[in-house]
């Protein structure tokens, strides 16, 4: 598997991965546009992709401006291989090299993603207005984990 920086040219494959997940599905796929991907990859933050046999099977995007993790998704057939963990490490190492600001994310309750973030040391700060679990990570917490 190859981990590399995600590029604008990868957006069609990133979208395929995003739409392939079985949990945290988009209620309306039109809510995340190609322009959203472009903005997050080129202006707001940085992304990484995992390739296997020339195709993208997972990706993550950190939003430095919004102090959040915008995306972390792995195709279901590649779950459990450590791809999400490696993408997570790439994103947080980059994020905390840019800023010491606390980073946050949210995910649906009762999902494998919720369990994953808890195992990675994220702190549960309650629920969002939409009922998702909101997590935060400080630079100190990240450095203790590393």
Structural commentary:
The protein is built from 5 helices and 7 strands, in the order E-H-H-E-E-E-H-E-H-E-E-H. The chain is α+β, with helices and mostly antiparallel strands. The protein has one domain: Gcn5-related N-acetyltransferase (GNAT) (Aminopeptidase, 3-Layer(aba) Sandwich), CATH 3.40.630. The protein is globular. One of its GO terms (molecular function) is acyltransferase activity, transferring groups other than amino-acyl groups. It holds the Pfam family Acetyltransf_1. Residues 1-140 form the N-acetyltransferase domain.
Give a concise summary:
With 146 residues, the chain is an alpha+beta fold.
Strand content: 25-35%
- Count of all domains: 1
Largest sheet: 4 strands, antiparallel
The gross shape turns out to be: globular
Low-confidence stretches: none
- Helix and strand content put the structural class at alpha+beta
- Tell me roughly what share of residues is in helical segments: 25-40%
Oligomer: single chain
CATH topology: Aminopeptidase
Task: Assign the CATH superfamily.
Answer: Gcn5-related N-acetyltransferase (GNAT)
Tally of individual helices? 5
H and E string? EHHEEEHEHEEH
Largest beta sheet: strand ordering: 1-2-3-4
Based on the structure given, which CATH architecture is correct? Answer: 3-Layer(aba) Sandwich
What distance lies between the first and last C-alpha atoms, to the nearest angstrom?
A: 22 Å
Task: Name the average pLDDT.
Answer: 93
Radius of gyration: 14 Å
Number of strand segments: 7
CATH class: Alpha Beta
């Amino acid at each position: 598997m190859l981990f590399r920086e995600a590029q604008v040219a990868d957006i069609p494959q990133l979208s395929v991965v995003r739409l392939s997940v079985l949990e945290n599905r988009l209620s309306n796929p039109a809510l995340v546009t190609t322009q959203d991907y472009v903005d997050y990859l080129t202006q707001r933050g940085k992304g990484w992709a995992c390739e296997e046999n020339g195709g993208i099977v997972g990706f993550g995007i950190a939003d430095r401006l919004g102090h959040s993790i915008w995306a972390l998704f792995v195709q279901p057939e590649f779950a459990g291989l450590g791809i999400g963990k490696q993408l997570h490490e790439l994103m947080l190492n980059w994020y905390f090299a840019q800023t010491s600001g606390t980073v946050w994310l949210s995910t649906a309750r009762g999902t494998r993603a919720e369990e994953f973030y808890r195992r990675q040391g994220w702190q549960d700060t309650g629920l969002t207005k939409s009922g998702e679990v909101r997590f935060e990570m400080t630079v100190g917490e990240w450095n203790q984990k590393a």
